[in-house]
Amino acid sequence: MRIARFSIDGNVAFGAVEGPVSSGGTPPGTQPDDQLSINIIKGIPFAEFELSGTKVPLSKVRLLPPVLPSKVVAFGRNYAEHAAELGNEVPDAPFAFFKPSTSVIGTGDPVPYPTFSAELHHEAELAVVIGRMCREVPRERVAEVILGYTCANDLTARDVQRTEKQWARAKGFDASCPLGPWVETDMDLETAADLAITCTVNGELRQAGRTSEMTHKIEDLIVNITEAMTLLPGDVILTGTPAGVGPLNVGDEVAVSIEGIGTLTNKVIKRG
């Protein structure tokens, strides 16, 4: 099920996105909006819920960030080629940092170029959405705490990252964590472990990799972070980015696509 969070006529709700899945391996979410509808959910996706049967065309709603996490836990340098392209070593253990809740935006939302940076970079990532409160999760039970998966763009002020030891400003600025377009819940860990992931800028391919290239797998990341802290329903884990990161300019449209999930699109604008 593709669970979206959306607004219509000033009301916010969750719904199940329904419609044809494109053939030929094209990720869901690339079809025209008029082929898709949202079946409004009675309840919330983190507990038992029902489909109301009330459907609205996707083209008539505004998609919002699919979840509002209390925290986004991101893991850096988790793809060897990406680490190498920035002159970094792959860490022996998962290497975590945080993006605040205020960094989260949805598909279609603008990304204001941060005024304190002159080198904004895209980073396409698979995001794991947590479905239940959990701590000290054993590896064999990781699947039980996952609601589903979505696309993410770990936007980074690269020049600031190089000069500041802590990454709070470089990776935590407002709108630095686009998520969406929805959460795909019908995907198991084995499938999520080998998905095609791409990033385009103005239609030009910048990044192309597979989640199978991760150094530390999804299970490793969740075991690692839950040793230290409790994850809450709706929290998000960013799993790292493949090689090919690069600059964005005002006016650029950046799209992250992940096989079997969909496409997340945002446009960079000048901060007013």
TrEMBL record:
The keyword Metal-binding applies. Residues 1-66 form the Rv2993c-like N-terminal domain. It comes from the Bacteria. Residues 71-268 form the Fumarylacetoacetase-like C-terminal domain. Keywords: Hydrolase, Metal-binding. GO terms for molecular function: hydrolase activity. Coiled coil: none annotated. This is Fumarylacetoacetate hydrolase family protein. The lineage of its organism: Bacteria, Bacillati, Actinomycetota, Actinomycetes, Kitasatosporales.
